[in-house]
Design brief:
By secondary structure, the protein is mainly alpha-helical. The chain has one domain. It is 78% helix and 0% strand. The chain has nine helices and no strands. The protein is globular and about 55 Å long.
Length: 199
């Protein structure tokens, strides 16, 4: 992979990672509800889970889409249903009682965030586009370079959304404001499905 293509890949990874999408909206909600430190496993799960996903898709799973196109439709339907479920959970997250943390309220774990990449429509679009454009020969080396670049670029990109959410905690000092914020995040998460449904 030439230096020019590598620079273009880094730029693509940065822009696609930092723009709004299900991962970033959920990180902002987590930052607001749980703070930066408790959201670190969620961020790591996204960064490493997505890099792993690119590697697996590029090294073999992409051939399933080529051979059986209906699998793409099945994946899209499953993704939409799961994202609607997550939006419902965010919207109905109960505000914590003052001075009494609720043990049932937890941020997404590393494994949950990594697994979520497999039903995230934006993640699939990013992975398939990155492989098609930056590893068109589908060689193992090119695919692993694409995965590594996303692994390195993704984490600092998505962490900005957690920081943004954490900073918003200063405004979300009442249960009512936090409820409004959570419902807004849920609505934006549902709205992020529009390009998928349109396609």
């Amino acid at each position: 992979m030439s230096a020019q293509i590598l620079v273009a890949l880094v730029a693509f990874a940065f822009v696609s990672s930092i723009t709004p999408g299900p991962n970033n909206l959920m990180l902002m909600a987590s930052g607001a509800n749980f703070g930066f430190r408790r959201t670190i496993p969620h961020m790591l799960g996204i960064g490493l889970g997505f890099a792993f996903m690119i590697a697996l898709v590029g090294l073999g799973l992409i051939h399933i889409f080529d051979a059986v196109p209906i699998t793409h439709t099945i994946l899209t339907v499953a993704s939409v249903i799961y994202l609607l479920y997550l939006a419902w959970k965010i919207a109905h997250a109960a505000p914590p009682q003052a001075g009494r943390p609720d043990p049932s309220r937890r941020p997404m774990t590393f494994l949950q965030a990594a697994a979520f990449q497999w039903v995230n429509p934006k993640a699939w679009t990013m992975a398939l586009t990155a492989i098609a454009v930056y590893a068109p020969d589908r060689s193992a080396w090119a695919i692993l370079v694409v995965a590594a670049v996303f692994g390195l670029v993704n984490l600092p990109s998505v962490s900005t959304w957690t920081i943004l959410g954490q900073q918003m905690r200063r405004l979300l000092t009442s249960p009512r404001r936090l409820t409004i914020f959570n419902w807004t995040m849920a609505g934006l998460l549902v709205a992020s499905l529009y390009p998928v449904l349109l396609h």
